Amino acid sequence: MAINLLRQDPRTYWHSCHWRVSSDHSTLSGPASRAVLRRVGRSSMPRPTVPPVVAFASSAIAFMTVMAAAGAPSALLVVYQQHWHFSDSELTVAFAMYALALLLALLGIGSLSDRIGRRPVLVAALALQAVAMVVFLIAPNIGVIIVARALQGFATGAATSAFSAYIAEVAPAPRKKIAALIVSIASVAGLGIGVVLTGVAIQFAAAPAAVVFGAALAIFGIAIVVTAASPETVGGRQGIGDTLVPRIGVPSAARAEFARTAPGMIGIWMSAGLVLGLGASIVHQALHITSGAALGLVVAAQPLAAAVSALVLGPLMPPRWFMPAGYVAVLAGVPLEACSFAAGLASLIICGAIVTGLGFGTVFSSTLGVLVPLTRSQERAKLFSAVYVVAYLAYGIPTIAAGFLSDAIGLVPAAIVYAAVTVAITAVGLIVSLTRTGSTSGDALSVHTQEARAHDVRASTSGTG
Questions:
Q1: What is the pLDDT of residue 39?
Q2: Whole-number CA gyration radius for the chain
Q3: What average pLDDT does the segment 249-276 reach?
Q4: What value, to the nearest 5°, has the Cα angle with vertex 245 and ends 259 and 239?
Q5: CA nearest to 117, candidates 230, 237, 250
Q6: pLDDT confidence tier of residue 238, bands split at 50, 70 and 90
Q7: Residue 278 φ then ψ, to 5°
Q8: What is the pLDDT of residue 223?
Q9: CB neighbours of 371 closer than 8 A, spacing ≥ 6?
Q10: What's the average model confidence in pLDDT over 109-122?
């Protein structure tokens, strides 16, 4: 109750604290009253926190920086390979370790912030990100880079669901409607921004890794301080033994919609892995682009287009057709990318990446827009964990498989096979989306949403936060 009142009207909250202290003082006298007053004053007056609007903005920036740092190695691994002359299989291991550690974090502690609070999880995740940046800065070989990627993957997995839920909860009332949109664009735009800035650093900086990871380290340090002073949105309600029990699942109200959107989620995140996972190697080896800035722009075209799609096109299109239109864009863009690999045309891969990115942003933001309103605040981290488990399994496993397949048949043929599978799965997502559009009424969705919001109101009035 106190947390919700603080978020809605800080002045009313502080006035209520003062009233409780004053009323206790008026009913007691003497030394006992002063002792009680001191105890009540200490317990009812929480430590100062930054305003919710500052917490909202800083958490969005921190989340985007986490994703930007995750995207940076996509371009740097090619540079490392040129300098240290390690094999393609070791490069694949570096990618696989990141995905594996991220999934372990999502499966093991993805919903931890639902039980102990958002703030401690976020502070710990940001601290581990900072450690990973230090390891990247001092890495002398690919073995240490693999360790850094594992640390980064685990920290990203721990931060992803907690940030996704926290941004939606701490957003001021006028900005609640765009919170889910910010979550969707922060994840994909952060990847794109990280790749672009890394490409520019490769092109113009003498020590690009020091520039990229040093800047990220500084931002994470500031984010740790601000997050530690930010308001909590979920109160811890379970013992430490319960918090260590791995839990992953989808809240009951959202299970039907989650199942219907899963094929499309797999398809669009496979399309992301095609460019972000294999793109840098293909651009360098098949398209013969050696400029760091150009390589970064090509690889980043898809995630940046996804962010533009979610931010600009979403308000312009009717929700009924927004998601199906996104699937159509992915089905058009991925074959363009495959043709560019076969023909060796850089301009064609850029066109394909932009079209695919527009579709990705449309589908992903629409999916979150459908699922988030169906869940209660205490279940959102668990929901986001489930969403990102599906997403990163689709993003990581096919890319790793394509890497091993390329050893047998070559990089370009493996990428074309990957693209064909992506198109097939995305087509299934489109078919299910059209079926859902016809069978799921807005009234039914509204009922689930109202039930979830009603539970949040009951929880806040009962003091569960």
A1: 40
A2: 24
A3: 88
A4: 125
A5: 237
A6: low
A7: -105, -15
A8: 95
A9: 254, 257, 258, 261, 383, 387
A10: 84
408-455: per-residue pLDDT in tens?
A: 888 889 999 999 999 999 999 999 988 865 444 444 444 444 444 444
- CA neighbor of 112 nearest in space, from 429, 384, 423, 431: 384
State the Cα–Cα distance between residues 147 and 153, nearest whole angstrom. 10
DSSP secondary structure, 13-67, as one string = HHHHHHHHHHHHHHT--HHHHHHHHHHHHHHHSPPP---HHHHHHHHHHHHHHHH
Q: Which two tokens stand for residue 306?
A: 């996804």
Distance in angstroms (rounded) separating the CA atoms of residues 329 and 262: 18
Q: Select from 97, 100, 104, 194 the least CA-distant residue to 147.
A: 97
The C-alpha atoms of residue 129 and residue 295 are separated, in whole angstroms, by 25
Q: Is 90 exposed, middle or buried (0-12, 13-18, 19+ CB in 10 A)?
A: middle
Closest CA to 162 of 457, 348, 377, 394: 377
Q: Provide the mean pLDDT of the chain.
A: 78
What number of helices (H) and strands (E) belong to the chain? Answer: 19, 0
In this predicted structure, the answer to whether residue 377 has a pLDDT above a threshold of 80 is: no
Q: What is the pLDDT of residues 270-321, one digit of tens each?
A: 998 888 777 777 777 777 777 778 878 888 888 889 888 877 876 676 666 7
Q: Which two tokens stand for residue 91?
A: 């490069």
Nearest Cα to Cα of residue 66 among 168, 163, 170: 163
Question: Is 90 exceeded by the pLDDT of residue 212?
Answer: yes
DSSP reduced 3-state for 318: coil
Q: What is the per-residue pLDDT for 355?
A: 95
> Average pLDDT in the 450-462 region?
38
- Distance CA(243)–CA(295), nearest Å, equals 43
Measure the CA–CA gap between 291 and 200, rounded to whole angstroms. 9
Would you call 404 helix, strand, or coil by DSSP? helix
Structure tokens at 370: 């459908």
Task: Say if CB 418 and CB 114 are below 8 A apart.
Answer: no
Are 217 and 402 in contact by the 8 Å Cβ rule? The answer is no
**Cβ 462 vs Cβ 235: under 8 Å:** no
Look-up of token digits 């073995």: 143
